[in-house]
């Protein structure tokens, strides 16, 4: 099989960064308008539509050359330079952020989604990291990105390969949507019972001092055990699975469980399997679970309900910390201490009602865990197949 080797610059009609500081200032941002795509919004090959920043119509017209269109690609210019996303119709007309590079392709020569998958391959990712500039903050420019060498089969083969990989992504996305719907259902039930007070038997329950009879106002320390993280020295980190998985954050935004990819051979602060992970440094208040026994770094706390009602505890915390940095202090970035976390106050129902909720919602959480497991298996299968398709080892 003879595939042509080309440089990205040869098949692109445009590779350019977003507007720099002299063209767009922080004061130009607004609460609505045209979204600007930043590296933080580029998650798992897609654009996250949460926590976006915007510019008004005036700036959109002035900087229209920086707008993106369906079929364009976007690569992070700074930080994790392996990040690459495919622009869909859902992001049509959005703006390129200053720390991103927009890539428009000649669709008469190449199939954009095929090029997207090739840029996300481990080989290209390692090459981008190797050629990036800067020890503190890796970065690439238009020249470096243009020089990337790619393989180019026929357009028909490009589309066939992209369609195979897209089928995996579609299944992954369906499972992600299922997780989102299940979590929303559980959170709605929590709000219905414990915020709106329409719990089973509420019609016959008296309100005493502002809360249903038998309920109490308690601090987190009264109902849960909390372990604060403490990072080991960097010399103990590895990716060879020596020691225990190590985490400093809750993982990708919107991901249900943390993914074990970094390990530490120095055992410090431990979170047991099934612990709720809570970010105590910016962004404060993000939540997740761990599937395995792990080591947690300074940015995390591991929280466990004293009566093993983890599902109730998770949705209780999620109701209170419904967005980032609701509480926290610090001159550089938000953070909270262990005492501040332990002293957070909640209205706690009586044990029977709490356990009833936990039984119902733990079944939902089991379905979420199954869907998450499917995502991991599909992701692993896709990532194993990708280099084989790109190299021609597996024919289409």
Low-confidence stretches: none
Shape: globular
Per CATH, the architecture of the largest domain is Alpha-Beta Complex
- Describe the largest sheet: 5 strands, mixed
Strand order of the largest sheet: 17-19-18-23-20
Structural class, please?
Answer: alpha+beta
Radius of gyration, in Å, reads 24 Å
How much of the sequence lies in strands comes to: 15-25%
- N-to-C CA distance: 12 Å
Please give the share of residues in helix: 25-40%
Question: How many distinct helices?
Answer: 10
CATH C-level class of the largest domain: Alpha Beta
CATH superfamily (homologous) name of the largest domain: DNA methylase specificity domains
Domain module count: 3
DSSP E strands, number: 25
Average of the residue pLDDT scores: 91
CATH topology of the largest domain: Adenine-n6-DNA-methyltransferase TaqI, Chain A, domain 2
Question: How would you summarize what this structure contains?
Answer:
The chain has 396 residues and is an alpha+beta fold.
How is this fold's topology laid out?
Layout (H helix, E strand, L loop, with lengths): L3 E4 H4 E6 L11 E2 L3 E4 L4 E2 L2 E2 L5 E3 L1 H6 L10 E4 L7 E3 L8 E2 L3 E6 L6 H8 L2 H10 L10 H5 L2 E4 L2 H40 L12 E2 L2 E2 L3 E4 H4 E5 L8 E2 L5 E4 L15 E2 L5 E2 L4 E4 L7 E3 L4 E3 L3 E6 L4 H11 L17 H5 L2 E4 L2 H41 L5
Parallel strand pairs: 4-10, 18-23
Antiparallel strand pairs: 1-12, 2-11, 3-7, 4-7, 5-6, 8-9, 8-11, 13-14, 15-25, 16-24, 17-19, 18-19, 20-23, 21-22, 21-24
